[in-house]
Amino acid sequence: MLIDDAVEAAVREGFAASVFEDPDQFDAAIDAILEQGDDFTINAFQLTINVTAVVLQDLHDGDVPAEGDIEDLAQNFAETQENWSEVSADLARTYMSAAVGEKPVLEVMDPGDVATTGLAVGGWLLAVYPPDEQEWTDYLDEVLHVLEGAQGEVDEEG
Fold first, then answer.
1. At the top level of its lineage, which domain of life is listed (predicted)?
2. CA distance 9 to 3
């Protein structure tokens, strides 16, 4: 997956706002993405979905998490993040299930919910579940490297 530098920077801003639980910075990051137009916004949302999918599979030793595991994560998310992010356990569960499932996220969620939920959940996962007590930014770098490598493998096979 070729990741556009500007899209990556915008998504990082959104994840940072989530990590630091800053609603004003969070809203500004979402607005900054939306102001860049439809293609940019779609690419940013897709990147948050892909990051979430990689982290969820990383948490489960490379496997797709079971619905019960996603339910537990969604409840944990809501207990600590719903007050500032306004993302409920139900939205978090739907988003994570779709990120690792067969139905596209935008088929099961409204675009506005995808923006808010994707950045809130993605930032939370990076901050709470990094391997070996890494900083969330280092973990994000690793995840992005995995995503970029996945495209390289597809290109080499094609």
1. Bacteria
2. 10
pLDDT tens, residue by residue, 11-22:
999 999 999 999
Do the Cβ atoms of 24 and 31 come closer than 8 Å?
no
> Given the structure tokens 């595991």, which residue do they identify?
69
Per-residue model confidence as pLDDT tens digits over 69-110: 999 999 999 999 999 999 999 999 999 999 999 889 989 999
Grouping H, G, I as helix, E, B as strand and the rest as coil, residue 106 is helix
Residue 93, Cβ neighbours under 10 Å: how many? 21
pTM, two decimal places: 0.91
- Nearest of 101, 137, 114 to residue 46 by alpha carbon: 114
Tokens linked to 19: 């990590």
